[in-house]
C-alpha cells in the first residue's frame, strides 16, 4: 500500500478501532493464478492479533489458501475533492480512509467457529430493537447453515493504513475543503469533513 508520509496514521490503536468500525471488508488472495476477492464481514479480536470471518463453502477461494499472505481491505469514508476549492491552481483528488491487513489463514471449525459466529452476530445485533443470537436459533437450523460455510482465522502479520485527508494543505485551503465537503451534503463528503475537522483539532 502506497502511503505518503502526510497520510500515514501513527496511532495503531486508532487504526484497529477504524477496522472494527468498518468491518465489512474484502478478502484478497490468489486462486488459480489470478487475484480473487470476496466481500465479507470480519471481526478483529481485542488484542488486534487476528481476524475471524467465514465464506460460503461454494466459494472456491478457501481451497487455495497456502503459506502466502492474504490481504483484507477495509474502506472508510471517501469523497471527491475539486481543484476549484483551492486558492491556487491544482489538480482534483480524492480524500479517503483505508486499511490493509496482511496475514496467514487457517480454517476454524467446531466450537471455535461457533464462537466466532456468535461474536459477529452479537456485535451487529447490539443496536437492534429485537436482537437475535446464535443461541436463540434452532440448533438443527444452525447446524445445517454452518455446514454451508468455511470459518477462517487470519493471524495478522502486518497492518497498513492511509488517511488521506488533505493534511498536506495549508490551514486556509484545508478549511475550504471542509466547507465545500459539508456543502455537498452526501454522507461520504460529510463524514470526510468530520474526520478532517477532528484531526485539525489534534
In short:
By secondary structure, this protein is of the alpha+beta class.
Q: Name the poorly predicted regions.
A: none
The number of strands is 7
Structural class: alpha+beta
Q: Can you tell me the number of structural domains?
A: 1
CATH topology value: Pnp Oxidase, Chain A
Helicity, in percent? 25-40%
The top level CATH class name = Mainly Beta
How much of the polypeptide forms β-strand, as a percent range? 25-35%
Number of helices: 5
Note the run of SSEs as H and E: HEEEEEEHHEHH
Structure description:
There is one protein chain. With 202 residues, this protein is an alpha+beta fold. Helix content is 31%, strand content 34%. It is built from five helices and seven strands. Strand 1 and strand 2 form a beta hairpin. Helix 4 runs antiparallel to helix 5. The radius of gyration is 20 Å and the shape is elongated. The chain starts with 11 loop residues before the first helix and ends with a helix.
Describe the protein's topology:
Elements: H1 12-21, E1 24-31, E2 34-41, E3 43-44, E4 50-56, E5 70-81, E6 93-108, H2 110-125, H3 139-146, E7 149-164, H4 171-184, H5 187-200
Antiparallel strand pairs: 1-2, 1-5, 3-4, 4-7, 5-6, 6-7
Helix pairs in contact: 4-5
Amino acid at each position: 500500500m502506497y502511503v505518503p508520509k502526510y497520510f500515514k496514521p501513527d496511532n495503531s490503536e486508532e487504526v484497529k478501532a477504524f477496522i472494527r468500525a468498518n468491518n465489512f471488508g474484502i478478502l484478497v488472495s490468489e486462486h488459480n493464478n489470478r487475484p480473487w476477492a470476496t466481500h465479507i464481514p470480519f471481526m478483529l479480536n481485542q488484542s488486534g492479533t487476528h481476524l475471524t470471518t467465514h465464506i460460503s463453502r461454494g466459494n472456491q477461494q478457501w481451497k487455495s489458501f497456502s503459506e502466502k499472505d492474504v490481504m483484507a481491505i477495509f474502506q472508510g469514508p471517501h469523497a471527491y475533492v475539486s481543484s476549484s476549492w483551492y486558492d491556487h491552481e491544482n489538480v482534483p483528488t480524492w480524500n479517503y480512509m483505508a486499511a490493509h491487513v496482511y496475514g496467514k489463514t487457517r480454517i476454524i471449525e467446531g466450537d471455535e467457529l461457533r464462537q466466532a459466529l456468535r461474536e459477529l452476530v452479537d456485535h451487529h445485533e447490539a443496536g437492534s430493537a429485537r436482537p437475535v443470537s446464535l443461541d436463540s436459533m434452532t440448533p438443527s437450523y444452525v447446524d445445517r447453515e454452518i455446514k454451508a460455510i468455511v470459518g477462517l482465522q487470519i493471524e495478522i502479520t502486518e497492518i497498513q493504513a492511509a488517511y488521506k485527508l488533505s493534511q498536506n494543505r495549508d490551514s486556509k485551503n484545508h478549511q475550504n475543503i471542509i466547507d465545500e465537503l459539508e456543502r455537498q451534503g452526501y454522507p461520504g463528503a460529510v463524514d470526510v469533513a468530520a474526520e478532517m475537522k477532528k484531526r485539525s483539532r489534534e
